[in-house]
Every structure is written in structure tokens, then in C-alpha cells.
What we know:
The structure is a single chain. The chain starts with a strand and ends in an 8-residue tail after the last strand. About 25% of the residues lie in helices and about 30% in strands. The chain has about 260 residues and is an alpha/beta fold. Helix 1 packs across helix 3 (about 75-85) and helix 7 crosses helix 8 (about 225-230). The protein is built from 8 helices and 12 strands. The chain has helices spanning about 40-50, 55-60, 75-85, 100-110, 120-130, 170-180, 200-205, 225-230; strands at about 5-10, 15, 25, 65-70, 95-100, 130-135, 145-150, 155-165, 180-185, 210-220, 235-240, 250-255. The strands form 2 sheets. A 9-stranded mixed beta sheet has the order 6-7-8-5-4-9-10-12-11, with helices on both faces. A 3-stranded antiparallel beta sheet has the order 1-2-3, with no helix packed on it. A hairpin with a 5-residue loop joins strand 2 (about 15) and strand 3 (about 25).
Amino acid sequence: MSFSKKSPIGALGDAHQTADGSWTLSHPGHFEWYHSADGAATEARSLYVDASGIASDFADGRSVRVLDVGLGLGYNALVTMDAWLQAGSKGPLEILSLENDEDLFAALCSGEAPWLAGWDPVWLGAVTGLVQVQGSNLEGQACQVWQARVVGPGGGQLKWRVCLGDARSGAAVAQIQAAGLFDYVWQDPFSPRKNPGMWGADWFAEIAPAVRCGGCLMSYSVASRVRKALAAAGWRVERIPTSTRKKRWLRAFRLAREEDPT
């Protein structure tokens, strides 16, 4: 995977410009890129917006909730916001992003990180508008909650919250459960090989009760272990063709459970 215009930023890794002009980072510990060389923004839009069909919900003015697992550089949440704004939706959008790297998040919120080069002012306004609204008292586990609000041209309101801390902690799980039922899940941690705890059947079973029956999960990983873990946790899994050099992406739907309301 080749990049151009390498720019060092210390402990967070190196910034690299991708094929669509947007920037990504290489993680110094995992030795993986946050996004594809084909285009960080393009990849996020194609996988999470286009392939999920979420834009049709925005066009219909429906209320939508998204669980963004692995905020990272912010692209997945921001292309979702973009699609909602472009649809002129009158319906509300709620995004709950999970992130464990405090330094990465601080760089994002500063508005000055190198991967923000060339970002639309709306994107910059969203990330710099995040303010802390909660500390670390839930169930004795460390968790910070940050929040930003955006009013769309159609009158709809976006509430974007970031839960900063271990996604498997009691505090993060409490935030997920308190948000209401999610319609979509963007499953985007580092790879199963580097971050196995976020790809096992126990994780997918843990978030399943917070997702509505039929809710859609999208991910870049089509690894056999991931598909098996999702199926074991009550998800119907399929591999779908992509518009990128990567041949397949993963799409899954939360199956009905006995405890679901009728």
C-alpha cells in the first residue's frame, strides 16, 4: 500500500495523503493504516453510507441512530453527517462514536491535526464543536462523553456523542444501552488480528440488544472468524461486492430474539 506526502506527527503515527486527496494515519503500534490508500473519505462513504442504504432513511425524514464503533480519524461519523445534511432531512440523527485513544481524539478536536487538511468547514465545525458533557462516574469505570449538535437545512437535528474510553467497560456499555435502539452499526476497529476483543461473538452479542430487529451492521472485515462470531451472536451475515479494489465488504442484520417486543 503506497502513500504520498508523508508527514510525521510523532506518537500518533505518520500522516499520508490518499488517492482522493484526503489524509490518513499509520498506527505506530498496530502497524496498520486507519484507511485505504484508495481514499480515506471515499472508503468511508462507499462502505458506510452507500452500501448500507442509510441515505434512503434520511431522504424519507426518518429518525436514525448510528453506533460508530471506532471513531478513529472521524471519517465514518462525518460522511454520515454529510449524507444527512445533503438529504435535507427533517428527521433527527443521533451518532454515538466509541474511541479509546485520548491523544488521537484530542488531536481531532483541536482542528489542527494534519489529516484534517482540506476538510470542509462543516466537518471542522463539528469536530471542534465537541465539548465534554460527562466525566468518569458510571459504574466506577473511566468514561468521558463529548457532544456536538448540528441543525440541518431541513430543520432536523443531529446529536453526535463520543464515548472516550474502553468500549468493553461498564461505562461504555451503559452509554450504548441508554442511547435507545440503533438502526445502524459502523464496525470499524483495527483488524481482528490486532484487536480481537472487538470482533468476538461476545462483543457482537453485547451490542445486539441495543440494535433494533433488522438493524444493519457494516464492516470492512469479511474474515471467517468475524462472520462466524456474528452468526453465533444472532446476526445474519453476507458478503457484498465493493466499488474499490477490496473485493468484498461485510453486511449483517440483527435477527429477531425471543425477548424482542412484539
